[in-house]
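Suppose a colleague, Dr. K., hands you the sequence of a protein chain of 139 amino acids and asks what its three-dimensional shape might be. Before reaching for any lab equipment, you can write down a predicted structure in C-alpha cell form. Begin with the sequence itself:
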Amino acid sequence: MKQKTSEAKKTLETWKESYFDVRAKIEASGRDARWEFDRKRLFERTDHMASICEDLKEVATVMEEFYNIFGPELKAVTGDPKRIEDVLKRVDGLVKPIENVSWKCMSRYIIIYTVFRQKLSLQSSKYCMILPFQVFPLK
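The predicted structure, expressed as C-alpha cells, is then:
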C-alpha cells in the first residue's frame, strides 16, 4: 500500500509540474498569448488527492510498524501470544473507519483521519508505557 500511495501521489504531483513546464515553454516561445488558467480549478482536487495519498501512506507505515513491534518475537518473549493478538485486533480496528469511508464525502474522511491520529496517539502512548511492565514484570 505504501508503494501504491507513493506512486499515486507522484502521478498527481507530476500533472501539476507538467502544467507549469508546458506553460513556461509556451510563454518563453513568445508565440502565443499568456497561458493561464484558474489554478484552483486545475489543482484543488488533485492537490487534495495527493494529500490523502500521503495520509494513507502514513497509515500503512504506522500499521507496518505496529505489526513489526507486535510480531512473533514479542509473542515468544511474552509467552502470551493471545494478548499480542488482542493488541493487533485493536490496531486493525483503528483503520476500519478509513476502509469504510465513502470517498464521495471528503469532509467525513478528514474527520475519520483526525480520529485515527488521535486514537493512534493514545494507543501508542498506552503500549509504550504499559507493555514493558507487562512483558517484564517488576518483582
